[in-house]
Design brief:
This protein has about 400 residues and is of the alpha+beta class. Among the domains are: about 85-165, Dna Ligase, domain 1; about 240-290, Actin, Chain A, domain 4. Helix content is about 35%, strand content about 30%. The chain has ten helices and 18 strands. It has helices spanning about 50-70, 105-120, 165-175, 190-200, 200-205, 240-250, 255-265, 290-320, 340-345, 370-380, and strands spanning about 5-10, 15-25, 30-40, 45, 45-50, 75-80, 85-95, 125-135, 140-145, 155-165, 180-190, 210-215, 220-225, 225-235, 275-280, 290, 325-330, 350. The strands form five sheets. It has a five-stranded mixed sheet with strand order 3-2-1-6-11, sandwiched between helices. A five-stranded mixed sheet has the order 14-13-12-17-18, with helices on both faces. A hairpin with a 3-residue loop joins strand 8 (about 125-135) and strand 9. The longest helix has 29 residues, at about 290-320. It starts with a strand and ends in a 30-residue tail after the last helix. Mean pLDDT is about 90; it is low at about 385-410.
Length: about 400
């Protein structure tokens, strides 16, 4: 029987907190064992604002996952995305000092340290470094694995992810209160995880923009030539649409959310037949009547404002670095008409992100809102040996991987 490892990940969303548990084997197969979900409390725009509330929500999601899989969890990976996460693209360079002039793992560590030293920000801690391509002697560029190549100088272009110390500390406290430990190298850029699970190598090569639209945050990450080349965080998402619907029509926020999901549309001109909708009033017992087209008009106005802000931020980059397509992930990407809305503004082909890794997922698990969770599992599966949480009676984990999965080889 092949050796296996238990991997757990947590998505600290502003609307829901979710915990995923999977089993990965050295033959590259990944089996999703269960997902726990809880209403998110104590978190705003990806930041913990109340540790007690956040810990209880985390615990609820974790306990639901544990109930499904039948054993206790200990170590987890955590996806990050907030204004307190900084992403820099920095170079590193080292001379090959061995007598044989053969590049070794030690040279890889040195060149990463070189890139890391350039990216230091006061009061920010390194959480992730993603190699975006190596160059040997200035001639052989875009190399993914230079070990054992001959050369005099090794250069690295890397994505360096850092996060504010207090931001990380508060997350760690909430996770610790829930009885969990964050795995070594356990903090991961959330949109990077979404890209791992939804973008093919062909798309990354041609140029693709992934827009991860959550409840209160939107993260944009761009790949070109199979490398991450751009990242940006925006403090808005689907909750902005919900608040507009609630305020303009005077209905309760939960009713506004329900109508947005079930009857909303990001493009009013896509409404073929108008329909009378009703939502519970904030001020009276009389339901508020809303036309379906009116609902779409409110959503479209706010959606265009959000996308306009994103496009404005990306204009300079995209004018010099064109992309082939846009992929939408996150819960808000399920909004009707959003593909058309984004496509019109950016003038690019748009599709909803389909989870392509891990393979063999059920239709329910393959939903786009699970893209970051699946990416966390892929990230964890690509790492070196980890201590299992699963009881020995269920499976033997005394021996761990000698080889890591090939998925996501470009991760540090």
């Amino acid at each position: 029987m092949s050796r296996t490892e238990i991997i757990a990940g947590i998505d600290l969303g502003s609307r829901y907190i979710r915990c995923i548990v999977a089993e990965a084997s050295e033959n590259s197969s990944i089996n999703i064992l269960g997902i726990g979900k809880a209403v998110s409390k104590g978190i705003r725009q990806g930041v913990i604002i109340n540790i007690e509330d956040a810990y209880r929500s985390i615990l609820e999601a974790v306990q639901e996952a544990e109930h499904i899989v039948g054993f206790k969890l200990k170590n987890v990976y955590v996806g990050l995305g907030s204004k307190f996460v900084a992403v820099q693209f920095e170079p590193g360079s080292v001379a090959i000092t061995s007598q044989e002039k053969i590049i070794t793992e030690n040279d890889i560590r040195k060149v990463k340290d070189s890139a890391r030293s350039v990216a230091k920000i006061p009061q920010y801690n390194l959480i992730q470094i993603v190699p975006c391509g190596y160059t040997v002697d200035g001639f052989f560029a875009g190399i993914k694995e230079p070990v054992n190549m001959s050369g005099l100088r090794l250069e690295l272009n890397a994505m360096i992810v850092t996060a504010m110390e207090t931001y990380i500390s508060n997350i760690s406290k909430a996770i610790d209160e829930a009885g969990l430990e964050i795995d070594y190298d356990g903090f991961v850029l959330g949109s990077y995880c979404s890209a791992l699970s939804t973008l093919s190598e062909e798309m990354k090569d041609l140029g693709v923009l992934l827009m991860d639209i959550g409840s209160e945050t939107t993260n944009v990450i761009i790949y070109r030539n199979k490398r991450v080349t751009f990242y940006r965080f925006f403090p808005f998402g689907g909750e902005n649409l919900t608040r507009d619907i609630s305020n303009i029509f005077g209905i309760k926020p939960n009713e506004a959310e329900r109508l947005k999901i079930t009857k909303g549309n990001a493009c009013a001109d896509l409404i073929e037949e108008d329909e009378e909708l009703y939502g519970d009033s904030i001020t009276s017992n009389t339901p508020v009547k809303i036309l379906k087209e009116e609902l779409a008009q409110v959503i479209e106005i706010r959606m265009n404002q959000i996308l306009g802000r994103i496009k404005q931020e990306l204009n300079v980059y995209l004018s010099k670095n064109p992309i082939g397509a846009i992929v939408l992930t996150g819960g808000t990407s399920n909004l009707n008409g959003i593909e058309t809305c984004v496509g019109r503004l950016f003038d690019r082909p748009v599709r909803i992100g389909k989870i392509i890794e891990p393979k063999g997922l059920s239709e329910e698990l393959a939903q786009t809102e699970n893209s970051m969770l699946m990416g966390l599992i892929l990230h964890g599966a690509s790492k070196s040996e980890r201590k299992t949480d699963k009881p020995p009676s269920k499976s033997k984990f005394s021996d761990f991987w000698d080889k890591v999965l090939q998925i996501g080889k470009d991760i540090f």
